Request: fold
Amino acid sequence: MRAGILAAVAIGIFVAAGLSEANAQAKRPTPLDTGPSASMSPWKRYPGWPAADYSKYNTLGNLASAPAPKEPIKLTGPVEGDAAKGAKLVADRRRGGSCLACHVMGPAGNADLPGNVAPDLSEIGNAGREDEWLYNYVFDARVYNPETVMPPWGSHGFFTDAEIRDMVAFLKTLKAPAVFKTALDNPEKRPQPIEKRDNLDPLENPGMWAVEKGQELWKVKTTAGFSCNTCHSDPASSFKTWAATMPKWEPRLNKVLGVEEFVTRHAKATTGDTWLMETDNNRAMSVYLHFLANGTPIKVDTESAEAKAAIARGVELTKRKVGALNMACTDCHGIAVNKWIRGQWMGEPKGQYDHFPTWRTSLLAVWDIRQRFQWCSVNIRGNELPPDSKEYGDLELYLASQNEGLKMSVPGIRH
Ligand code: HEC
Ligand code: HEC
Ligand code: HEC
Reply:
């Protein structure tokens, strides 16, 4: 009976894929639905996330930001701003995260866990900088340093001309080293956080719900009478290493395929279920498939020509400046590594993949890797891409290759 169903399904699939039966027997290609989208289409941002549209600015999918100015703005006289207002503005988190996200700034350095991605400006008032230099550095630092990490505050409309003058006036008052009230205030002394939890203990990791749910889903039959179990009755042994080999280049889709998109497309082609990416069933099944591979060192294909090309594209994407803040992945995950930015410690890229999908304690939710990419884009005020975009596939393969050898440990726990 089961063999009969299997044969019927298999033949249906192979015929649909246009392969001869003999060929199919030899290769047993994994059934995949190759429809246009594996996520909500058109993609709509998650409820609770900032709703603003940033389509004026670059995304990982397209280039839209206005080019950087070529020349500094000429000032006609000295900057006469209100330093007291400037002191407030540099610490205003609603303005792109505040200057203190990256700089210590004298008295303002005592608030809000200042960062150390950028030079300490506590004595900038003694440095003999021209007003025009300071003004333009804040307005759009790219006129002096095309690769700067600092967002173009003026060009991208975060601050008005008058506000920038107020901040420059404040900077000119900074003439003494910052005095920190406690070690916590000083980013050079602040201890780095340690996430020390047993992520596979269900009592400690609420994300373990997804393992149980995935296990249940495995056996739930669709109206057509199929479940994953129909064809894979022993997932624990069949898929003991599989997730650790993902993502991989998929010629039928002409892009890199990750576990979550695989789940959508394979379920559609086999059980007929519609488990779109970023919905609960998809997340649960992804967690479960990763969970089965726990302890297996990550080993993705980095050798084939397609994989090499995808990784090269991924590397380029990590350097692309996106969003209103005009930042690249590498601005934070490269330049800012082992530093404090916006009150957060930036960890090493190694170790940022092996625990996905992961439980977010601050959000009480499981996030897969694509949702993390999306958040890192929206967080710098850039539009995210749909989770199944080819760009995220390239990024994911690159990140996985960087994490090669680390043992899968899913679901992780992260703040
Ligand atoms: C994302 C990190 C980041 C943020 C946020 C940031 N800066 Fe910077 N800033 C830098 C870096 C890095 C430099 C060092 C020079 C460079 O890389 O261009 C710098 C340099 C500067 C300089 C030039 C210093 C000099 O020696 O001449 C000034 C002035 C400055 N920042 C002011 C500001 C102000 C004002 C804000 C807030 C409106 C701000 N910065 C926010 C990263 C940042
Ligand atoms: C109608 C049969 C059928 C059903 C139902 C089915 N699969 Fe598969 N699955 C296959 C075949 C055929 C392959 C190809 C590899 C093989 O021969 O095992 C495969 C391969 C896989 C693989 C390995 C993928 C790879 O890259 O080779 C995973 C993981 C998987 N299936 C998970 C699932 C899950 C999860 C479900 C439930 C949503 C499911 N399968 C339902 C037939 C099925
Ligand atoms: C403004 C700084 C910033 C930028 C730009 C940024 N990120 Fe992040 N990212 C963070 C912070 C902060 C975290 C959380 C702290 C951590 O886990 O290291 C994080 C976390 C992550 C994680 C999860 C790490 C983990 O261990 O759970 C991944 C993966 C990631 N980012 C990828 C990216 C990618 C890809 C890009 C470019 C599209 C990007 N980020 C751009 C700041 C940034």
